[in-house]
Amino acid sequence: RSRDELRTRNRLGYLIDxxxxxxxxxxxxxxxxxxxAHHEHFGxxxxxxxxxxxxxxxxxxxARRADIGPAAFMRMRYQTIGFGxxxxxxxxxxxxxxxxxxxxxxxxxAWADLFTxxxxxxxxxxxxxxxxxxxxxxxxxxxxxxxxxxxxxxxxLPLRPNARGLLIELEAQDLGFCSWGRGTQRLRRxxxxxxxxxxxxxxxxxxxxxxxxxxxxxxLGIRFSEATATTWLPFRLSARMRGRLGExxxxxxxxDQRNLPGYVPQFAVQGERSIGKRTDLGAAVSxxxxxxxxxxxxxxHVIREHWLIMVSTPHAxxxxxxxxxxxxxxxxxxYPF
Length: 337
Hints:
Blueprint: E1 9-23, E2 30-47, H1 48-56, E3 64-67, E4 71-87, E5 93-116, E6 123-133, E7 146-158, E8 167-180, E9 185-195, H2 213-220, E10 225-226, E11 229-232, E12 236-246, E13 249-258, E14 264-275, E15 279-289, E16 291-303, E17 307-313, E18 330-334
Antiparallel strand pairs: 1-2, 2-4, 3-5, 4-5, 5-6, 5-7, 6-9, 7-8, 8-11, 8-12, 9-10, 12-13, 13-14, 14-15, 15-16, 16-17, 17-18
């Protein structure tokens, strides 16, 4: 079962991105670019006890404490509309994006625990955390719940002298912020809660005992405050060294980090082989990110001298092991006008 594979600290997440980019004719050494994209990013880090309490209850924690923090998660949906320039001969590019915030859910629990007394006669919870969510009136596609700005760019630094064309690329993606509107809701708690049951003086007068939702929320102090809030985007920073490995071979080493809970620095080594003039096939080994060791595959092909199609997966074995861990796919199409 899933609980048997949990560690003391666990992490998971997913990334969904779709982008359309138009590159204009050269103007000197640069080409203008216009780019529109949709993003949905999610990251979570959590202790094993939080998973067990959520899915199996607290029966297994009788007379002991469950540590359900520290933990954090963030799920953000946003769109970007950007303008910039791309170098004609090198991989340099720079783009400024307008950020349209669609929805946000984020929590940061500094510490939390739950003690269950023998026979469940008492529950004691300690919690210190912060929860933030965008306006809940609507979060459909096209909803404007926030606005912001972001920068994306890459700069290429050649290493000289070298015979293999080695170079370093430094890149930032969606480095920016989003300011969420007045309907944004925040909940901050730093408290201890003790539950020792409910005393009923007269079983025939239960109407006076039954607690409604509002009474429970008041007792627990779960009341959101509404105010604007500004958050960082789930940006990505990376450094990459690439070059030729030999006749028909090329390779790259990349390290990157994302601003998402549960994401740790990821290290990847990639190699590609040219098959004729139209096709490149490659493989990549990576470690870090949301998971452990990954084995990816990459295929690039030119169709009719114009269309460039690239298909890749960060972890090919996931499709054959009947497990979603590490599964993913990317499709990229390019057509020069």
